[in-house]
Each structure stands twice: as C-alpha cells, then as structure tokens.
Specification:
The protein is about 10% helix and about 40% strand. By secondary structure, the protein is mainly beta.
Length: about 120
C-alpha cells in the first residue's frame, strides 16, 4: 500500500505538518506539505515542505543548514494532519529562534518570550 493513500490533502493539495522536537516534546513549527514533500520526507528522512507564499517546495535547512531529521512521522485520526518528531539542527524558526512559537498572549497583548539565538 502507498503510504500517501491515507492522507487527506485539502482543496489546495496540502496537509499541515507539525514539527515537534523528539527529545523535549516542544512544538517547533507548523508548515505545509504537498504530496511530493511528503514523499521526499519519507524517502530522505529529512523534512521537506511546501511554501504557500513562494508556491514552491523546499527542504528545511537547505540554505541555513538548520535541517530537520525525521525520527518518526505520525498521521492523526482523521488523516488530515501530520506530526513529525524531529531532531532539529540549529534554530527551527527563520527568526533565528529555537521555535516559531515565541510570542505569548498576556492580557490581550502579544509578548515576546524568547529571544533569537546568538
């Protein structure tokens, strides 16, 4: 059986993928995958995503070196979301932070709770 057969892509041919640090359990980022990105991720063992803004595929860390080695890949109960447990090299966020979720709502205001890595 083709592992892609059970995935439910949206109307744009995309599926959300949550990247989670395999050691700490911290959610590092959310990105989107098309069928080819899923296939490349499975084949290479490294996370590949689809950029909605640039309308192209990319390997995480291809320019920065901050790659994501996939330790495990899970499909949710509805078949419409992927969870990638990964080993992150360097920061996961393009802002040079460990994770993309570095702002917290405090009393209606978004507060930065994590500074960029040096």
């Amino acid at each position: 059986m083709n592992p892609l057969d059970e995935l439910k892509f949206d109307a744009h041919g995309l599926i959300p993928a949550i990247a989670q640090d395999c050691e700490s359990g911290r959610v590092l980022m959310l990105a989107w995958m098309n069928e080819e990105a899923v296939r490349q991720s499975i084949e290479t063992g490294f996370a590949h995503y689809y950029s909605r803004s640039r309308a192209c595929q990319w390997k995480k860390g291809e320019s920065s070196g901050h790659v994501q080695k996939i330790v495990a890949m899970y499909l949710d109960c509805d078949g419409d979301t992927l969870l990638l447990q990964i080993e992150q090299t360097g920061p996961a966020c393009h802002t040079n932070r460990q994770a993309c979720f570095y702002r917290q709502n405090q009393r209606g205001e978004w507060i930065t709770i994590e500074e960029p890595l040096v």
